[in-house]
Design brief:
The protein is built from four helices and no strands. By secondary structure, it is mostly helical. It starts with a helix and ends with a helix.
């Protein structure tokens, strides 16, 4: 396994831990009868979406046989396109707006990390 493949899989594992932690915090709040705050739900959705981006990278490595860098670059392209796609206006649909914002936030986080990883190879 190459360094880039190792780094991609490390990010995938870290993203799964972050998603699990965010899920646990929401579940704990619900179990204790507490209100779940918007920031907790945002963290949960961002963590889930970030995990999906890294899962896509790892799937391309493991299932499609792509190199780590190629898998990251292809997935980075998809993340960029997801941010450029026009969004409809969801007037009055706050939940849809919040989910869309969290998804965009996760794509931006993935892009920042992917850019740093690609920069490692470019040096």
């Amino acid at each position: 396994m190459t360094l880039m493949e190792d780094l991609a899989k490390d990010h995938h594992i870290q993203a799964s831990f972050e998603w699990a932690e965010a899920s646990r915090k929401v579940a704990d709040a619900l179990a204790e009868g507490e209100d779940v705050r918007a920031i907790q739900l945002n963290r949960l959705v961002v963590a889930q979406c970030t995990y999906r981006w890294w899962r896509e990278v790892v799937s391309r490595i493991d299932e499609e046989g792509l190199s780590g860098i190629e898998a990251i670059l292809r997935t980075r392209g998809e993340a960029e396109r997801s941010l450029l796609r026009p969004r409809g206006t969801n007037r009055g649909e706050l939940f849809s707006q919040a989910m869309g914002q969290a998804s965009r936030q996760a794509a931006q986080q993935f892009l920042e990390t992917a850019q740093k990883l690609v920069g490692i190879v470019a040096v």
